[in-house]
Structure formats: C-alpha cells, structure tokens
C-alpha cells in the first residue's frame, strides 16, 4: 500500500498508524532509514535494541556469572 504524508519545516514526517502497527513501532522507538542506491527511495526498519534479543539465544552450556565475568576480563586484557 502507498500512503501520503507531509514533510514539516523541521524535516519531520508522521508515519501512518497502519505502518507503525505493521512494524510494531511504539512511540519513541528508534528506526533506521536507509537510502536506496538510486537515491529515490528510502526504506524504514525498526532498529533492534539489544534488550529485545534477551533470551533469544540459548547457551550451549550453563555458565556461572563469576566464570562469565572472568572470561570477559581475560578477553579484555588481551586487547
């Protein structure tokens, strides 16, 4: 579907509610605006927040918080 919106003097646009609902964009959600190669089209995508991924990936084995912290510190020292 094609929707019409207006660019304000400040360069702002309103994303129609139908599109916000389809993309699950709540108020104050960050989005990515991608300019296509031909520079005549833009693409809007929700920006993934790292917290949105919490619980998505299951560890192969359980690791204690202490061991995880030690591994992080060890890796940090290497760099």
TrEMBL record:
The species this protein belongs to is: Candidatus Woykebacteria bacterium RBG_13_40_7b
Query: Which segments constitute the SpoVT-AbrB domain?
Result: 2-49
Spell out the InterPro entries in the cross-references: SpoVT-AbrB_dom, SpoVT-AbrB_sf
Pfam families from the UniProt entry: MazE_antitoxin
Q: Does the keyword DNA-binding apply?
A: yes
Q: By its UniProt entry, which Gene3D superfamilies does this protein fall under?
A: 2.10.260.10
The name this protein carries in UniProt is SpoVT-AbrB domain-containing protein
Keywords, A to Z, come to:
DNA-binding
| Record GO terms (molecular function) | DNA binding
């Amino acid at each position: 579907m094609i929707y019409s919106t207006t660019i304000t003097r400040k360069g702002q646009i309103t994303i129609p509610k139908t599109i916000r609902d389809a993309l699950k964009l709540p108020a104050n959600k960050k989005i990515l605006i991608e300019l296509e190669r031909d520079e005549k089209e833009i693409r809007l995508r929700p920006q993934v927040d790292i917290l949105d991924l919490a619980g998505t990936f299951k560890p192969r084995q359980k690791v204690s918080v202490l061991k995880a912290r030690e591994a992080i510190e060890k890796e940090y020292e290497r760099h």
